[in-house]
Specification:
two-stranded antiparallel sheet; 14 helices; alpha+beta; 10 strands; six-stranded antiparallel sheet; about 15% strand
Length: about 400
């Protein structure tokens, strides 16, 4: 059956159904789409989690939000790649969220429970190495495990044609409408044209495409973008720009209030500025390609999409791969946190992190208990979600 893209007034219902379907596919997918539930658990766990220094955190540090990221000149590193929930908060929250995501990925791969224990041990080693003064870099990609090396190798080899074939299905300058891209209303089209006449968008394009100084930047095509569970209720657009003989694919995403608890009141009113500030602190390569703006009176983030930007998919992994990935990815998060701390703060945070270490498990008790409680809560919530979804389609 041919898919008929919904009109603007019908989008919300279609997005809601898509969100429910994606979250019903696996417990791991449910965790990715249930950020609010994670923070509901945190509210009931005050005093059980160490209080870290107030720094920018990802706020939603699951596996899908980590991966290869390119800077404006094409250099690639593995960084945090989604900062929608970024706030100045407790860095322990990122560790717990990552540990939960890794644990659910292991369960989805039918790995034994001992794998989770081993992953938490390696997570703490990787994170501690990155936090420790004088050792601010995570392990090199050569020691990151097969899964991560393969994704990084793919990212380094990708060109515009790969991005075009995935996002717009062709190298021709248009965005074909279908399941992913939906037609804009006349008003939306006018607002997007107006956006790229604004100083913020012009400054971003000039920084990313030096040739824009000689050639006019033209909006070749634009569409509403149905992407991920987070699209529900938010503006999300893909825009194809022409700059001389080159193309530039832009992602416009509405910035809304973060669910993650914050330690300051900064950026309370402008969530786009919060998101960009968080990106520049945690993921400089990504932050360099972003700018805050307004579209139709609503805060949005404009970001260039690059062929090298990929996310990790841990559908089926071995115990060795899971343990290696846990150490490396925790190191990536640790590096993002560490660059915001001075030497004294790193030492103090490291000491607090390593409290409650047991003799049988080389990981702090607070992290192990947090993961056990969260896995149990999310497994139960996932089954209930599946029951409600089955009833809704039955």
């Amino acid at each position: 059956m041919k898919f008929s893209p919904p009109k603007e007034s019908q989008r919300s219902e279609v997005l809601k159904r898509q969100q429910q379907l994606k979250m019903a596919r696996s417990a791991q997918a449910y965790v990715r789409g249930s950020t609010v539930k994670f923070y509901e658990w945190l509210e009931t766990s005050k005093g059980k989690v160490p209080e870290g220094p107030p720094i920018w955190i990802c706020g939603d540090c699951h596996l899908g939000n980590l991966g290869p990221v390119s800077d404006s000149k094409g250099k690639v590193e593995i960084e945090i790649r989604d900062l929608d929930q970024s706030v100045i908060g407790n860095p322990a929250h990122d560790l717990i969220r990552l540990a939960l995501s890794l644990s659910m990925a292991a369960r989805s791969s039918d790995l034994p429970g001992v794998t989770t224990a081993l992953m938490l041990e390696q997570m703490m080693l990787g994170y501690s190495d990155a936090i420790r003064p004088g050792r601010g870099n995570p392990a090199s990609p050569a020691k990151s495990g097969k899964t991560i090396r393969m994704v990084l190798k793919e990212a380094l080899s990708r060109k515009w044609r790969h991005l075009a074939s995935e996002r717009i299905e062709d190298v021709r300058p248009n965005i074909p409408l279908g399941r992913k891209f939906w037609a804009l209303s006349k008003n939306e089209h006018k607002e997007i044209l107006r956006l790229f006449e604004a100083k913020e968008a012009k400054a971003l394009v000039a920084r990313l495409r030096p040739e824009s100084k000689k050639h006019k930047v033209v909006v070749l095509d634009a569409a509403y973008w149905m992407k991920g569970c987070s699209s529900l209720g938010r503006l999300r657009y893909a825009v194809l720009l022409g700059v001389g003989n080159t193309y530039c694919l832009i992602d416009i995403k509405e910035a809304t209030e973060a669910a993650a608890p914050r330690k300051n009141s900064g950026h309370r009113r402008n969530h786009a500025e919060r998101l960009v500030s968080g990106a520049r602190a945690l993921s400089p390569y990504l932050g360099d390609r972003m700018v805050a703006a307004r579209l139709g009176g609503r805060p949005v983030v404009i970001r260039e999409l690059r062929p090298q930007d990929l996310k990790f998919e841990f559908d089926q992994i071995t115990q060795k791969e899971a343990v290696e990935a846990a150490r490396f990815l925790a190191g990536v998060v640790g590096k993002a946190h560490a660059r915001q701390m001075d030497t004294a703060t790193r030492k103090k945070w490291l000491k607090s992190l390593n409290s409650q270490r047991g003799k049988a498990l080389d990981a702090p008790g607070w992290l192990w208990r947090s993961v056990v409680e969260l896995v149990a809560a999310h497994e139960a919530a996932y089954l209930e979600h599946c029951r409600r979804y089955a009833l809704s389609i039955g």
